[in-house]
Amino acid sequence: MEASIKNVARVAGVSITTVSHTLSGKRHVSAELATRVREAMETLGYTPSRSARNLALGKTQIIGLLVPDIGNAFFAELAKGVERVASGRGYNVIIGNTGFDRSRGLMYLEMIRARAVDGVVYASGSPFTDIEISGGTNNIPLVLVDGEVAGSHAPLVASQNLEGGRLAAEHLLGLGHRSALLLSAPSELATGADRVTGFVEAWRAGGGRAVQNGQGGFTAEGGQAAIRHHMGEILQGSVTAIFAVNDEMAIGALRELRAQGISVPDQVSVMGFDDIRSASDVHPSLTTIRQDVSLLGERAAEILLTLLADGDETVEGESVPVELIVRESTSPVDPRTSPHAMVDAGQKGQGR
Amino acid sequence: MEASIKNVARVAGVSITTVSHTLSGKRHVSAELATRVREAMETLGYTPSRSARNLALGKTQIIGLLVPDIGNAFFAELAKGVERVASGRGYNVIIGNTGFDRSRGLMYLEMIRARAVDGVVYASGSPFTDIEISGGTNNIPLVLVDGEVAGSHAPLVASQNLEGGRLAAEHLLGLGHRSALLLSAPSELATGADRVTGFVEAWRAGGGRAVQNGQGGFTAEGGQAAIRHHMGEILQGSVTAIFAVNDEMAIGALRELRAQGISVPDQVSVMGFDDIRSASDVHPSLTTIRQDVSLLGERAAEILLTLLADGDETVEGESVPVELIVRESTSPVDPRTSPHAMVDAGQKGQGR
DNA sequence: CTGAAAGCGCTTACAG
DNA sequence: CTGAAAGCGCTTACAG
Fold first, then answer.
1. What is the spatial distance, in angstroms and rounded to an integer, between the CA atom of B52 and the C1' atom of D11?
2. Does B132 touch chain A (CB under 8 A)?
3. Centroid of chain to Cα A310
4. Half-sphere exposure of B36 (CA within 13 A, CB side)
């Protein structure tokens, strides 16, 4: 005898209504019946079918997490945060790895349209337009993480990237640096753009002068290439500090600097952003701006679940604090090697 | 008018049977009706409800992936592999993060019992006994990854850890090393135990002598502590090579060696296992045994899906090849600093 | 405090 | 080639 609600009711000698209510607690069941029901469930080894429940209630208790690459530490940590609060509230999370691939993304959109999930946390980087993500999606509750989707009104949860850029600039200024090389990334990515903006504003305000570098592309290789390209300024001491808008690029920079025989931080200070795992493993360990990625995921999930609970309620996004982590890769500028020159290499006229 | 199959049928002027069959292709539908159905679906914006389908078919097209820590790069990469093949075959994956926590694990067991998933990929480290995992689980198809569960007959997918240990030993022997320090981990973890066994066997066969060290616990801190404990042997050259059964410990070892002013690989060679991201970022970059973790996930998912397709078929587990990655942290033993002494510090009598 | 029955939206055996 | 209807296993409005 399979363990369906019908059989439990039969064994307990009650209606399925009563079985359902002793489980849900949505209406009172006399102690005697409740006991009989529980015993019947026990002997049958009954666990209610999620599928049946889903159909009856029109929801799945599942949220989708769409990321471009779950193998990437950032998104893995994000997933951890999302899973933590979701599971704590009785939700499961389906992970949708788009791999930056449109067709895989569309597959997950179809899953959303099929109401396989009650809501979605959508991490930046996936290849959708606003129309697809909100229009094609049955008005399913949506929370954005890390980056905007053009034109979307969905709440956004992101780190205080602007503030992070500012912290980086102030740290370097405080060490006496005035000439910095900025390793940025394609401006399409708002995440990086905010970090640049925050840095440049604070840097200017503090009397520094930034050298922009469009290359870098968020990769270690990009960081290496950028350093190679600016070797001249570094050697002549007209750049005493390097700020990369992510740790990957900063680590690439460290690698190239070592290869070129430049000592960090003695000859040049290097900062990153993110505080990925490697940041503390490299030598010298990397001074960086830490973002609390799993908190990002937790907050996103909480907002989404609030949305699911309150229906129409309008919910605000939020920004998650960042933190300066000082390690070995930055030190006070050495007055002898630094002529405090004002260099503006690379990007012609990009400095506003 | 909501987009249900009933409304599509009404608009197209056919039965819901016909709507269902034009979608599934399980029986022929005349071109004319098929067209009318498709048009109706189009105008209504119809996507079939997954919940209804699940209930009717008694399956969910979802597999569960149970891991102890999705934030950990190993499991994140595993998830990537699992997701890739699952999504390629029309399955979604729910990620279950147990956090090494029994109660969270039990919550996911309950999800399995509720038939919220059709099968599960179970990565080592979660806190279950065999009885719980197979008995309490509705006979749901199960594939184990990375480690056995005591007494379970479920197929296991794991890296060739034994072979990996052997490769490490042979690499070091080939460089002339004969006295090694082995950074192992608690023997409960079969993963590490196989690596040790493979190493020790090949090492002995090649004329080497192993120094065991029970500490390490798979963490960088453990690796550091172990080095501190064996500083004497390293300084006097009676240990010329160190093999850690994972990269974390190897990186901890590198850190401590640097702190103590020992040059790697000049004074001592260091090897790890896994080839985690940091392995190539540290300096000197780490010679290690790479395991293809995302392939591990792919194979596990494929086996699980085969199990789901073929029902009763018995399926074998498999082992995934590993690869020696030579980087900067190992070099030929320096005959001057190496008296080829046979040291057996630490574990009294543990060397068989 | 309890039960009979409708309904959630599909799939499919049965009949034609 | 097509349709009417039962069934998947729950939840819940309605009635008592």
1. 15
2. no
3. 25
4. 15
User: Contacts of residue B113 in chain A, CB cutoff 8 Å?
Assistant: 47
Q: How confident is the model at residue B188 (pLDDT cuts 50, 70, 90)?
A: low
Smallest Cβ–Cβ distance between B83 and the set A70, A92, A255 belongs to A70
Is the Cβ pair B51, A55 closer than 8 Å? yes
For strand D, the positions having any atom within 7 A of a protein Cβ are: 1-5, 7-13
Interface residue B261 vs chain A (CB under 8 A)? no
Per-residue model confidence (pLDDT) at position B51: 97
The beta-strand segments (E) located in A139-219 are 142-145, 156-159, 179-183, 209-211
* Token pair for B5: 């199959």
Chain C footprint bases within 7 A of protein beta carbons = 1-5, 7-13
pLDDT tens across B253-297, in order? 999 999 999 999 999 999 999 999 889 999 999 999 999 999 999
Is the CB of residue A94 less than 8 Å away from at least one CB of chain B? yes
Candidates B52, B55, B93; nearest CB to A95: B93
What pLDDT, in 10s, does the model give residues A178-198? 999 999 877 666 678 899 999
Confidence at B237, pLDDT banded by 50, 70, 90: confident
Measured in whole angstroms, how far is the alpha carbon of residue B89 from the centre of its chain?
21
Q: Inter-chain contact B93–A92, Cβ cutoff 8 Å?
A: no
pLDDT of B130: 52
Cβ of A49 less than 7 A from strand D = yes
User: How far is B277 from A302, CA to CA, in rounded Å?
Assistant: 31
CB A195 within 8 A of CB A162: yes
Task: Please give the protein residue whose CA is closest to the C1' of the nucleotide C7.
Answer: A56
With 0.85 as the threshold, say if the pTM is over it.
yes
- C-alpha–C-alpha distance, residues B104 and B254, integer Å: 36
Considering only CA atoms, which of A167, A124, A138 is closest in space to residue B46? A138
DSSP H or E stretch at residue A100: none
Domain architecture of chain B: domains with CATH: 5-48 (1.10.260.40), 60-154+295-320 (3.40.50.2300), 161-286 (3.40.50.2300)
Give CA–CA dist B82/B119, Å, rounded: 12
Residue A161 belongs to what H/E stretch?
helix A161-174
- Label residue A153 by pLDDT band (50, 70, 90): confident
Residue A177 and residue A145 in contact, taking contact as beta carbons nearer than 8 Å = no
pLDDT recorded at residue A339: 47
